[in-house]
Specification:
Elements lengths: L11 E6 L5 H12 L11 E6 L5 E3 L3 E3 L13 E4 L12 H12 L3 E4 L4 H5 L8 E2 L6 H7 L4 E2 L5 E3 L3 E4 L4 H14 L1 H11 L20 H16 L7 H8 L3 H12 L3 H19 L4 H7 L5 H12 L3 H8 L13 H16 L2
Parallel strand pairs: 1-2, 1-5, 5-6, 6-10, 7-8
Antiparallel strand pairs: 3-4, 9-10
Length: about 350
């Protein structure tokens, strides 16, 4: 290939449609990829609907779907979305669909499933030896039918490169925004999330559900000011005893009510907030990893790297390279390349000693 030739990314997203279609999961794909969004620029996604079988294609709720074409559309797609699959427990996937998905993946298309759509994706064999997820209700059945797939039972989504899977229906929104983030960067993904009125970024490893996702009104009112103060001082130590005193509770009562309000112990909640703030700084500033670690309460770059690797499966530098615009990728102002390499080696040794 000649040097300097730019290959434009394939922005055609094709969603599968079939009789007894899962309306909500299909609607997620339409909402994120299928609506005209001129404010996002000229390179936004194109969208088409692929019928995997002759009509009529009836969707849950009494809808009928008019598709743009058949399986031939998969030959042109850059991304293929598989909504929740019908009969996740028993109904086989048509062999012609299996072959079409394999061919599309073989030529470089990205395949993503929402909720029980993972059963159609697993039938292709493309998840063999890979990690995947689905709604917690289907986890046991997926593991039984496809023992060669490493099923992650309690995460929102799994990104295995060109094969991606999401948990229950709403987690499909998180996965789609993750894809937008990878394709267009955090600024566009955050703008789209605001349009959808959803959180701009929930990491894939976040749990599918918590013990009490909606706190009692009185607990929310009592803790909301404390949450704001805790976020404002992420760089500081925040011992439980001091937080309990600030809330006017005994430590035992505070721990119980804090978990009831958030689903997490205070330490886990703070860690999630610190990671979220660190991601924001990596995306939007050129601050060094060390400076970001100090500003978010991790204390050192080694500790920040450890938690990034544990929770996000990547490093701060790799995260910045993937999601930050060029202007935020400023060189580290705290030393030469040799000094930074030495610090990196030291940090790596510290992490290995953990």
């Amino acid at each position: 290939m000649p040097t300097g030739v730019n290959i434009m990314p394939n922005r055609l997203v094709v969603a599968l449609a079939y009789d007894r279609l899962s309306t909500f999961e299909f609607g997620i794909a339409v909402e994120v990829f299928g609506l005209p969004r001129p404010e996002m620029g000229p390179d936004w996604y194109r969208f088409a609907v692929c019928a995997i079988e002759p009509g009529p294609l009836r969707a849950t709720g009494g809808f009928q779907i008019m598709a743009n074409g058949g399986l031939e559309l998969l030959e042109e797609a850059g991304t293929i979305v598989i909504p929740g699959w019908r009969g996740a427990h028993a109904e086989p996937v048509p062999p012609e669909l299996v072959e079409a998905l394999r061919r599309a993946h073989g030529r470089g298309a990205r395949l993503m499933s929402i909720c029980s759509g993972v059963f159609a994706l697993a039938a292709t064999g493309l998840l063999s030896g890979r990690r995947a997820t689905t709604h917690w209700h289907h986890v046991e059945n997926l593991s039984r039918l496809y023992p060669d797939v490493t099923v992650e039972p309690d995460v929102l989504y799994v990104d295995e490169g060109r094969v991606l899977t999401s948990a229950g229906s709403a987690a499909g929104i998180d996965l789609c925004l993750h894809v937008v983030r990878a394709d267009f960067g955090p600024e566009i993904a955050n703008r789209l999330a605001r349009r959808l009125v959803v959180p701009p970024h929930r990491e894939g490893g976040q749990a599918q559900f918590i013990e009490r996702p909606v706190p009692p009104a009185r607990e929310g009112l009592r803790f909301a000011p404390l949450f704001d103060r805790m976020r404002a001082r992420l760089a500081e130590e925040q011992p439980v005893a001091a937080l309990a005193a600030e809330a006017g509770m005994s430590v035992r009562t505070f721990l119980r009510r804090f978990k009831a309000a958030t689903g997490l112990p205070p330490g886990e909640w703070l860690l999630a907030e610190r990671l979220a703030r660190a991601r924001d700084l990596l995306e939007s500033t050129g601050e060094s990893i060390e400076a970001i670690a100090g500003a978010t309460g991790f204390g050192s770059a080694a500790t920040l790297r450890h938690h990034f690797r544990t929770r996000l499966g990547t490093s701060p530098a790799a995260y910045r390279a993937r999601f930050a615009p060029e202007r935020a990728r400023a060189p580290d102002p705290h030393g030469s390349d040799k000094q930074k390499a030495a610090r990196g080696a030291a940090d790596g040794g510290a992490e290995a000693a953990r």
